[in-house]
Amino acid sequence: MAKKAEVSVEERLRALYDLQLIDSRVDEIRNVRGELPLEVRDLEDEVEGLNLRLEKLNDSLTIIDDEIKGKKNLIEEAKTLIKKYSEQQKNVRNNREYNSLTKEIEFQELEIQLAEKHIKEFKVQIEQKKEVISETKDRLKDRVAHLKHKKGELNDILKETEKEEEALKLKSEEFQKKIEERLVKAYNRIRNNVKNGLAVVPIERGASGGSFFTIPPQVQVEIASRKKVITDEHSGRILIDAALAEEEKAKMEKLFAKLSK
């Protein structure tokens, strides 16, 4: 079986920078979406919360209505008892029986007054809750409209970029396979540790890209020779020479143009 060809350091550097350009392009696409996915999620949560609030408010209205019906039934029962006790008073044999029935009538009259008081209080609660329901419905209508608008924005961006992003992810995986696992792990670790996600950078005006620390001329010569993987002692980024970077950028721009169609 033929031995697998040894990958040169230069080929590894080119593959690493190609991987960096691909991942940076994915970062750009995600930056275009920005905070939209989070905004949509927050709005969806808010709409769900408002719907739940309306459901609870309507349930509480039903409970209050049942309470009012209960109090009205109590009033009717009390009126029936008052009528009954009043009829019984006509046939009492002594004052003690008459006074006892009078007390029962008075008690039922108090029950009616208390029930009527509760009914009034319940009606006030109903009006207050109806006001809150109205405000909540207005808020919900506004949030649903805003959510629809934001979802439309997000869907438009996704339609434009989803296909390209998926293709770029596959390319990223493809290029990672060209690089030894140790280097891929180092690349991903550096990417995760820097704000802009740049793990592989070219030399620009004697310093690593995005840095102000000058790289010694001897080290610059070593980087240009492409014989070993060299990292910036200040940022930890993998360094490549400007010429290699330009060549790979030109190559990858053609790939991006193809993928974005």
TrEMBL record:
Gene3D superfamilies: 1.10.287.1490. This is C4-type zinc ribbon domain-containing protein. Keywords: Coiled coil. Pfam families: Zn_ribbon_9. Residues 40-178 form a coiled coil. InterPro entries: Oxidative_Scav/Glycosyltrans, Zf-RING_7. Residues 208-239 form the C4-type zinc ribbon domain.
